[in-house]
Amino acid sequence: MFNKKTISVVIPAYNEEHLVGKVIQTMPDFVDHIIVVDDCSTDNTITVITKIQQTHSNVTLIQHKHNGGVGKAIATGYLWARDHHIDVTAVMAADFQMDPADLSRIVEPVCAGECDYTKGNRLFRGESWEMIPKYRYIGNSFLSLFTKIASGYWHVADSQSGYTAISLIALKSINIESIYPRYGMPNDLLIKLNIGHFRVRDISIRPVYNVGEKSGIKIKKVIFSIPWLLCKGFWKRMFEKYVIRDFHPLLFFYLLGLLLTPSGFFFGIYLLILRLTGSGIAPTSALFASFLFISGLQSLFFAMWFDMEYNKDLR
Questions:
Q1: Which residues contact 9 (CB under 8 A, 6 or more apart)?
Q2: pTM for the model
Q3: 284 lies in which domain range?
Q4: How many domains does one find in the chain?
Q5: With the C-alpha atoms ordered 84, 90, 95, 99, is the resulting torsion angle positive or negative?
Q6: 237 shares its domain with 253
Q7: N or C: more exposed end of the chain, with fewer CB within 10 A?
């Protein structure tokens, strides 16, 4: 237990025979339950975990019959923790990329009731740029920006970090079964938490790389799927939060901005092409294109500012 709260840690595992044992064996003593969810591994992951269970009575193994993705594996662990009424449930990867020394700081704010969900942030640290592969650092930064807009949690970053902790109240409130099953799961969960008006906090964690881990992320698979997930989640949040539950005019600012900004941009491109091909254009046309574009940007910025203000108490 930690601060008189029961603690469980969900470990989603897929072909992690080399490192999952190390993750379990270095787990802090205050963890009451370790739930390893095997996502239909084809190596010796099951054998390793079964052997560890002989000396670790707090380890529970759940096996998927079909590979559902890391998000699905975490959701399975969440369901176990919810049904067993665990106060705080954390998530740690099976590849030892999450420092167990950081776990106490991850769960502490949730245990204290200061927030409902904490997530690790590797970007706070100066050494992150040197340790994290550059393409992942840059990609993570862009996804973090888009996730801020989609989720409404403007104060959080490192959206793809899976080192998290969530309260039992939050687990009981969100639809766990509908969580996105693959690598967009952290983004989808943030959107669901914002719709539920739950408090989220970033916790600085130490980035861990070059410990024998193998990334399962396929850039070609996520480069379109996660942005599409964020787009759908954004509009769902707008409708659920600012139409059904509490009407807010920021929705009109977003709609106006998304209409005027591209209209002004493409109209300006059209006028530029006409100018380059020798056709004359009226000065008022150029002014009108500029007006559309600038007005659209202002509407978008106003909408974002309203959204920040509305969600500022969710820190």
A1: 27, 31, 33, 34, 35, 89, 90, 91, 92, 103
A2: 0.91
A3: 248-314
A4: 2
A5: negative
A6: no
A7: N
